[in-house]
Amino acid sequence: MRKNQLLYILFALSLLSILGFSYLSEFSERSPITSCREWGFFSSKSEKYYTHPEKIVVKPWDGQHHVYGLFMIPDGYRNDFFFTLTIDKTEVNCGVFKSAGMKFTESINVKPGYYLIKGFLNTRIALQLIIQGKGDQLKQPQNWKVGYVNKE
Fold it and tell me: Is the overall model pTM greater than 0.90, yes or no?
């Protein structure tokens, strides 16, 4: 009787391990970590400006695409392909933009002559920062930054 219980427990643990691994591998395929690459940032002869998000949403427990910042960019300017999130002045992570040109969203009134862009941070990076006790820094707008330049 004891031997059967031990076998059932080992079987259940093995099954849970396999299911957990397959879920994590599927999750990692859907949400690749974005590394900061030089091509993701404009270098311009004209002056480059920077802005911080108008709103930050940090809800990684709700799944993918629930950690993002909404940045307001003036019309006639183009933004970098990546934004940076700097924690403790040394740890720099990059996120990507997936939607642009929104005039009104999530209770943010866009100033005339501006548009909103939504920059997503990888959910795994957000969870790592929260586990490390850096969740408050993740929610600080001054730690998120995007550059933009005049359309030449």
Answer: no
